[in-house]
Design a protein that fits this description.
This protein has 371 residues and is an alpha/beta fold. The chain folds into three domains: 90 residues, Up-down Bundle (Chorismate Mutase Domain, subunit A), CATH 1.20.59; 156 residues, Rossmann fold (3-Layer(aba) Sandwich); 111 residues, 6-phosphogluconate dehydrogenase C-terminal fold. It contains 13 helices and eight strands. The protein has an eight-stranded mixed sheet, sandwiched between helices. The chain is globular. The protein starts with a helix and ends in an 8-residue tail after the last helix.
């Protein structure tokens, strides 16, 4: 049948295409090695721009959609950067001969940290009540450990992490201690106790989830608790990556996180709750969806599939959390008032104010995929 023959030809083309992608990935390994030898950074925005512009020009010559070619090349660029970043992290060997204990390492973010540290040559041990994790040495109860590790990472849920930090403060371990919690104010007492007892302590917030592979464009926040050496050592762990490393104090962190995480999570949970309570089935809405609806649904859907207990902690344990929620409630009230009163100018003002805010935001955003 002609249709089957044509589909077979498509399959053959796909196979050849993937073989070429494999060749491109192999070249990325080599290019990454040469960059390291020359002391160059992993990412070169100028080169990426040239690659995409060249691709768009070739697309025009071949009668292809320039947008489609650009999107394809950006996927390939990110894949190449992921390979090069992982190679650089491994080649740095920051952790060679050093031991790490990850308390809570069986959790999603704890396991990400364990794997990330292991890729740098650290000998990683995991202590978690969930039991052993394949590929890592298991510590049944960290409280019975000597705690003579070079680094101790606390990656437990927030409501437990403060107790762990307090207990560590009593033991005064000699190595670097840091948590990776999404909030810091619930950990204030534990972090202060470690500082008071002379422990090398910092606090870290990786601003990404456990499925992240490429750290380019991601942020890692470091809370300076008064021990400069501890912050420098914690930063060194992430320095081989392309993540943007930021420092701030504890209170500013949680004040900002109330909006960055708290507000965005709340919006998406409320959006999905309104849909679930609407009586309209998801397939019915999907059949007539718009671009805006699809984009919002995709973000909200990813939130819905995440850990509800973590999200609950982010909403309830932040000392500054009420600020963003009060702002959200006031904004909804104002929006309803404008709509119910058929206030056309008021509605325009709301949207224009948002447009101005977004314009200011865009001026300070991180570089796009093309720099």
């Amino acid at each position: 049948m002609k249709l089957n023959n044509l589909r077979k030809k498509l399959g053959d083309i796909d196979r050849r295409l993937l073989a070429v992608v494999k060749d491109r990935q192999n070249l990325s390994h080599e290019i990454g090695g040469l960059k390291r030898e020359a002391g160059l950074g992993t990412r070169d925005y100028h080169q990426e721009t040239q690659v995409v512009e060249r691709g768009r020009a070739m697309a025009a010559e071949l009668g292809l959609s320039p947008r489609m070619v650009e999107e394809l090349l950006l996927v390939l660029i990110r894949a190449s950067l992921t390979v090069q970043e992982q190679d650089r992290v491994s080649a740095t060997g920051e952790g060679s001969g050093k031991r790490v204990l990850v308390i809570g390492g069986a959790g999603k973010m704890g396991l990400w940290m364990a794997r990330f540290l292991a890729s740098q040559g650290y000998s990683v041990e995991i202590a978690d009540p969930e039991g052993p994790v394949e590929g890592f040495d298991h510590v049944t109860d960290w409280k019975n450990s000597t705690l003579d590790h070079d680094v101790i990472v606390v990656a437990a849920p927030l409501h437990i992490s403060n107790e762990i930090l307090m207990a560590l403060a009593e033991r005064r371990p000699p190595g670097l201690v840091f948590d990776v919690g999404s909030l810091k104010s619930p950990l204030r007492a534990g972090l202060q106790a470690l500082t008071k007892n002379g422990v090398r302590v910092a606090s870290v917030h990786p601003m990404f989830g456990p499925t992240t592979k490429l750290l380019s464009g991601r942020h890692v926040i470091f809370i300076n608790l008064g021990h400069e050496e501890a912050v420098a050592q914690a930063r060194e762990i992430f320095s081989p990556t392309m993540a943007t490393l930021l420092e701030m104090d504890l209170d500013n962190h949680d004040r900002l996180i109330a909006y960055v995480l708290g507000l965005s999570h709340a919006l998406n949970v409320i959006f999905l709750t309104a849909l679930a309570d609407s009586g309209e089935t998801a397939p019915r809405l999907a059949n007539i969806s718009s671009t805006t609806f699809d984009a919002q649904l995709a973000v909200a859907g990813s939130v819905a599939q995440d850990n509800p207990y973590l999200y609950f902690e982010i909403q309830t344990l932040n000392e500054y959390g009420s600020q963003s929620l009060d702002a959200l409630a006031a904004s909804v009230k104002r929006f309803l008032s404008v709509v119910k009163n058929e206030d056309k100018e008021g509605f325009r003002e709301l949207m224009e104010r948002g447009e101005l805010y977004f314009a200011d935001l865009a001026k300070g955003t991180k570089p796009s995929e093309l720099g």
